[in-house]
């Protein structure tokens, strides 16, 4: 059987674990033995359905249903109201978002003076309280307040006072580009985001950022230069992940000081995971502007009548219908590709305008969608940006089909599977065409079967392209 994965809204995938289900049910009041029995039943159901992955929302629905069937509505209501052990809790720090991590919290509590056992007990208690309360997202100050309350409940008012006192005594550290230049506060969140761009997981990135902060505080410096901070980060990366990752970090830091913005172009057919990959890479690179080619198509639909450009008013894989005669019921491969190319050529006009505007504003940009097709993405300001195209391809037909079932469940039917599965042959035909175009143009092809691997491969492509640009700048 293919291993089953749990997929979160943030785009992360974890192997399915009965332990996570058991933990969730015990938080809702079930004993260990019946919880294990229910978890085993659900595991057998997932095995029989042979799903390669299931969304956290769908798994929660299945779990609540099974608990209600076995133990009644009272337990099911408690379970439904809490945030499950397999669901993310998002911590908000201004505009930044990060997943709550019990391990990261425990390590920060150790830094605040608690023993390892005390820190782990506190972190576990904080997480359990958040999940029982059904918290799915929380502002950083509120989380800090909850931690302080948990400290008092477990260790008394004196411990809370000591904890608050230690936090108050921690002075802010500032970073300056060079001596005498304007300073900015050191931020673990910003640092963690920057090192995720070299391939570290969120948990490893925040752990490394915490270690860097600890070293800065141990040094007693209130102000450090940017070069010194980069040196510390590179040392931590080399120790944590190896010299190659540290080299990547140096390269990305150097590239960010160049004058050209990055335009990341991610193509691929429906159901392969383009938007998830685009979001993950944009976050790791710190790119805030992202656009889907479907959004551009919708804008064109609103401004151009259907009679003038009929292929804009269909899905990319059904565009042949706008060109077919009334007698055509089954399209030929040639007609499918003719309709697809016609739609792509229309949408390309809007995409060029978007890219040109971003280039003129010197803004980095991520463009994702089926209309990101080799030969259609060039524009007159292309030399002013670092353009990085890649093509996401899902070779396994069964996984591709299952993606549409999962997307249908996750979106509550707003993106119904039926139309995609009816046109599955056309979707696969166009994907083969896109893969051939990418190979011919020398554009990297990213395997889409595993999201984590796709993100890692995407980062490799980005680093390689930036390295080429950096060498050109240095040699030039």
Automatic annotation (TrEMBL):
Keywords: ATP-binding, Nucleotide-binding. One of its GO terms (molecular function) is ATP binding. It comes from the Bacteria. It holds the Pfam family ATP-cone. InterPro entries: ATP-cone_dom, P-loop_NTPase. Residues 173-260 form the ATP-cone domain. PROSITE patterns: ATP_CONE. This is ATP cone domain protein. It comes from Meiothermus granaticius NBRC 107808.
């Amino acid at each position: 059987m293919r291993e089953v994965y749990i997929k979160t809204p943030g785009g992360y995938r974890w192997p399915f674990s009965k332990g996570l289900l058991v933990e969730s049910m015990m938080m809702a009041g079930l004993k260990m033995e019946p919880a294990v029995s229910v978890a085993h039943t659900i595991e057998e159901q997932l095995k029989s359905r042979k799903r390669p992955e299931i969304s956290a929302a769908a798994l929660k629905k299945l779990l609540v249903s099974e608990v209600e069937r076995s133990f009644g509505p009272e337990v099911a209501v408690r379970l439904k109201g809490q945030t499950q052990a397999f669901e993310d809790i998002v911590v908000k720090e201004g505009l930044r978002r990060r997943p709550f991590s019990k391990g990261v919290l425990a390590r920060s509590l150790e830094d605040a003076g608690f023993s390892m056992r005390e820190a782990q007990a506190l972190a576990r208690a904080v997480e359990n309280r958040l999940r029982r309360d059904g918290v799915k997202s929380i502002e950083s100050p509120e989380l800090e307040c909850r931690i302080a309350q948990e400290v008092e409940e477990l260790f008394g008012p004196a411990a809370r006072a000591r904890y608050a006192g230690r936090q108050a005594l921690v002075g802010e550290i500032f970073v300056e580009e060079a001596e005498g230049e304007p300073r900015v506060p050191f931020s673990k969140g910003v640092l963690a985001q920057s090192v995720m761009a070299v391939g570290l997981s969120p948990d490893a990135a925040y752990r490394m950022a915490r270690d860097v902060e600890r070293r800065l505080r141990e040094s007693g410096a209130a102000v450090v230069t940017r070069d010194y901070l980069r040196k510390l980060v590179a040392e931590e990366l080399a120790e944590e992940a190896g010299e190659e990752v540290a080299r990547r970090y140096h390269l990305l830091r150097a590239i960010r000081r160049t004058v050209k913005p990055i335009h990341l172009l991610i193509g691929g057919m429906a159901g392969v995971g383009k938007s998830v990959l685009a979001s993950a890479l944009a976050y790791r690179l710190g790119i805030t502007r992202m656009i889907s080619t479907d959004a551009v198509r919708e804008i064109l639909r609103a401004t151009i009548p259907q009679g003038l450009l009929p292929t804009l008013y269909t899905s990319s894989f059904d565009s042949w219908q706008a060109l077919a005669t009334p007698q055509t019921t089954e399209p030929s491969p040639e007609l499918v590709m003719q309709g697809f190319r016609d739609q792509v050529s229309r949408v390309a006009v809007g995409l060029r305008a978007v890219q040109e505007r971003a280039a003129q504003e010197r803004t980095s940009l991520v463009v994702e969608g089926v209309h990101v097709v080799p030969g259609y993405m060039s524009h007159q300001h292309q030399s002013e940006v670092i353009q990085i195209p890649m093509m996401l391809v899902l070779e396994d037909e069964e996984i591709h089909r299952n993606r549409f079932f999962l997307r249908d469940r996750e979106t509550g039917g707003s993106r119904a599977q039926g139309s995609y599965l009816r046109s599955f042959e056309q979707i696969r035909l166009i994907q083969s065409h896109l893969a051939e175009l990418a190979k011919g143009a020398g554009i990297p092809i990213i395997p889409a079967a595993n999201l984590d691997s796709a993100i890692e491969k995407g980062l490799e492509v980005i680093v390689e392209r930036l390295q080429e640009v950096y060498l050109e700048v240095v040699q030039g």
